[in-house]
Design a protein that fits this description.
By secondary structure, the chain is mainly alpha-helical. It contains five helices and two strands.
Length: 69
């Protein structure tokens, strides 16, 4: 998929664990793990919003379009 999720990168920059983020955004570890590993097929704007708020970042910091040949 040409959309890459950089949740792990932003968590590392903020020195935040998946458990800590899960508690802050009230999303299960399993669902955050699916998002973090790039296995998610979609993300709700509301979910993106709470993650951006918790990590103090922009949606573009979390999602990246990578042009594949």
């Amino acid at each position: 998929m040409p959309i890459t999720v950089n949740l792990d990168v932003m968590m590392a920059k903020r020195k935040m664990s998946l458990n800590e983020l899960s508690e802050k955004v009230d999303i299960t570890l399993a669902n955050l793990s699916v998002l973090k590993t790039g296995k998610a097929k979609a993300i709700r704007f509301t979910t993106l919003e709470v993650i951006c708020k918790a990590l103090d970042c922009q949606p573009g910091d979390l999602l990246e379009y990578v042009n594949e040949p």
